[in-house]
Design goal:
Length: about 475
């Protein structure tokens, strides 16, 4: 193999697993290092919006008005700014910016449990077990963190931030774990409500006992940011502190990091446009963080019944719209307008600020919902109500920014929304395009716990339709 040849995933797979073992990790990594993957823009970033529970594709982006009544649901498709692209009638704001995003309707996989679905979608690997959310392979955010770890944010910010409610404080809740990449690639979690007047980033302060023990009282939080920064830099403390505390020190001592988390710098008009609730204000915060140079920000948009919105008996805290959990349509009539407002505002804002080439936005859950509607008594409502169950065979989601061509519908499902009939794709194909945007070679490998080289993506390839516009 000469120095200009690329060791591709296909060549490894075609040669068989024994070829990987025979090549050796050092040689494999050396070959992969020669395969240069350039980012699609300077300082590329990703905002990943995670909708846990499984959004109902046939109510959102893949409506089937001609399907039988027990499949098609009650909502009508509406036209958008893009001729031929129809979406749910509850998404009028997205309809106005449809030329700035793509709908993907043909991603599918085989894991119908939330745990298996989370792991399958978020790692790009077939998980060892079909249930549970403890990863045996790294989450995509941790992979990006690891590959970009040499990038030092000039504003002192961490390279990987997750925003959500208190459930994000455990990486295992949503299969965000890093597996063999180690805890140092876990995200910096922010679980406060940015809509609250008392909002603060709880992790931007260090335990007083830690300071007393490790700094020998030489540094006081009360001495101000400048003196703290000077003492930390001259004491050699960072060399001995663990990764999490290093991140906290960097952010505590950076006025720019504090500014990035301060929503008071945003106009009331813009904050109102996003929505004065947790989802909306976290979305603004995500934009501020990527604007400040954070390469990967995940937002968990789970429970819309927050920031003063009361959850009724027929509502559910996440996107898991079983009939026993919620009334599919009544819940959607609260959830969808909030979602529509936030997502359309994010897309508009990224384009208005000229961030559309640098920042890729991905908005998805782990799978779709059963094409056929069923009715069950609600656990809370105690009355019969419609719902849909888990369905990984087909799903729909949107992507925007990243310099990509937009205004496209990619893929198609059959007349009942059951499975792809055009352009079938897997989660890996999405991640290949995301990694390409970040300049990450997805042929690269990391050693697992046993020292075996594990490629970032064992299969899949970029979605050509998402390539940057030349």
């Amino acid at each position: 193999m000469n120095g200009k040849q690329k060791l591709s995933r296909r060549s490894v797979l075609q040669a068989g697993g024994s070829a990987i073992g025979g090549l050796g990790l050092a040689q494999l990594l050396e070959a992969q290092e020669r395969s240069d993957q350039r980012p699609s823009a300077d300082n590329p970033s990703v905002i990943f919006v995670w909708l846990p529970g499984g959004p109902p594709h046939m109510e959102m982006y893949d409506l089937k008005p001609d399907a039988p009544e027990d499949y098609r649901g009650i909502y009508k498709p509406i036209g958008t700014k893009v001729p031929g692209m129809d979406i749910c009638e509850l998404f009028p704001l997205q309809a106005k910016v449809a030329d700035k995003f793509n709908i993907i309707r043909s991603v599918h996989h085989n894991f119908a449990d939330h745990g298996g679905g989370h792991k399958r979608f978020l790692t790009g690997r077939v998980p060892a077990t079909p249930t549970g959310t403890i990863n045996d392979a790294p989450c995509v955010g941790s992979i990006a963190f690891k590959k970009l770890e040499e990038y030092v944010n000039p504003n002192g910010l961490c390279n990987y931030v997750v925003l959500g409610n208190s459930r994000v404080n455990s990486v295992d809740t949503f299969a965000f774990g890093s597996a063999y990449l180690g805890n140092e690639t876990h995200p910096f979690n922010v679980s406060g409500d940015p809509n609250s007047e008392t909002f603060k980033v709880q992790n931007l302060s260090l335990n007083a006992g830690l300071f007393e023990e490790r700094l020998n009282d030489r540094v006081s939080l009360l001495s101000g940011l400048d003196s703290l920064r000077k003492d930390v830099e001259t004491s050699g403390l960072l060399d001995s502190m663990d990764t999490f505390n290093q991140r906290a020190i960097s952010m505590i001592t950076s006025s720019e990091a504090h500014k990035a988390f301060d929503l008071s710098h945003e106009s009331d008009e813009l904050r109102d446009r996003y929505g004065r609730h947790e989802w909306g204000q976290r979305a603004i915060l995500a934009r501020r963080l990527v604007e400040a140079g954070v390469p990967w920000v995940t937002i968990v948009m789970e429970n819309p019944y927050v920031s003063g919105i009361t959850m009724p008996d027929w509502g559910v805290y996440n996107w898991d719209s079983h009939a026993v959990n919620c009334h599919l349509f009544r819940d959607a009539e609260v959830r969808f307008p909030i979602y529509d407002q936030v997502v359309s505002a994010m897309i508009e804002d990224l384009y208005d600020r000229g961030l559309d080439k640098r920042v890729m936005l991905v908005v998805t859950g782990e799978f779709g919902r059963t094409p056929r509607i069923n009715e069950r008594p609600g656990t809370k409502s105690k009355v019969m109500q419609p719902g849909r169950d888990h369905w990984p065979n087909s799903m729909s989601f949107i992507v925007s920014g990243g310099g990509m061509r937009t205004g496209q519908v990619i893929g198609e499902t059959n007349t009942r929304g059951e499975e792809p009939v055009k352009r079938p794709l897997s989660p890996n194909d999405l991640w290949a395009s995301v990694y390409k945007h970040l300049g990450i070679n997805f042929d690269d490998a990391f050693p697992d716990f046993g020292g075996r080289p594990m490629p970032i993506l064992p299969f899949g390839d970029c979605i050509d339709e998402l390539d940057p516009v030349a």
